[in-house]
């Protein structure tokens, strides 16, 4: 029987996300869910030369109880160039940067207005590069519940991953320094480890 997991849509999800969905056949997303502040919907973490840095996508206006698929990106803040420069400075010398970055750059260049659409395209690319054959489906209001597991609202920046049951860090090659930084953006793993990324994710699933 196919395993379906209800999940949130994140901006370049971290490794905990991929560990949590690694055995899923289908991911179900909910565009009508209400936007939550301080979530991963518009932020991700990358490893810079002397720190872990956060990339945040700016959002238009105030957001009182607005559906995720109605969140608009504030494209007048030049955020795309900031993110592109940040990613290049962080990973320009990584072994697989030149192979994988053009996939993401193509999406950035579209200057999308919808954060939902941006995240959807980026996740689609990440799953393809990871060779994870999971399907992505949007849940429409009124449809019956077809998922076995619901992890919406669980992967939040405010709570350490160590307090959840999905991810146990498996170290891998990283640029800059000797200390390993766990649970960064999937970009960190892809750019540094390339085709080995999927096996590292599978090794990082927390054993129960």
TrEMBL record:
Pfam families: WbqC. InterPro entries: WbqC. This is WbqC-like protein family protein.
């Amino acid at each position: 029987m196919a395993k379906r997991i209800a999940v949130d849509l994140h901006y370049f999800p971290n490794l905990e996300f991929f560990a949590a969905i690694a055995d899923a056949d289908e991911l179900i997303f909910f565009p009508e869910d209400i936007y939550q502040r301080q979530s991963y919907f518009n932020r991700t973490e990358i490893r810079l030369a002397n720190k872990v840095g956060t990339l945040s996508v700016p959002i238009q206006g105030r957001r009182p109880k607005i559906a995720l698929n109605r969140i608009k990106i504030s494209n007048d803040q030049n955020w795309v160039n900031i993110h592109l420069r940040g990613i290049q400075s962080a990973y320009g010398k990584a072994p697989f940067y030149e192979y994988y970055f053009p996939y993401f750059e193509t999406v950035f260049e579209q200057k999308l207005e919808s954060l939902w659409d941006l995240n959807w395209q980026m996740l689609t690319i990440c799953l393809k590069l990871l060779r994870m054959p999971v399907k992505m489906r949007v849940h429409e209001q009124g449809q019956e519940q077809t998922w076995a597991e619901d992890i919406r609202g669980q992967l939040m920046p405010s709570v350490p991953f160590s307090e959840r049951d999905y991810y146990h860090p498996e170290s891998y090659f990283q640029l800059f320094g000797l200390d390993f930084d766990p649970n960064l953006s999937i970009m960190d793993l892809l750019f540094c480890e390339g085709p080995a990324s999927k096996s590292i994710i599978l090794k990082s699933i927390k054993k129960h």
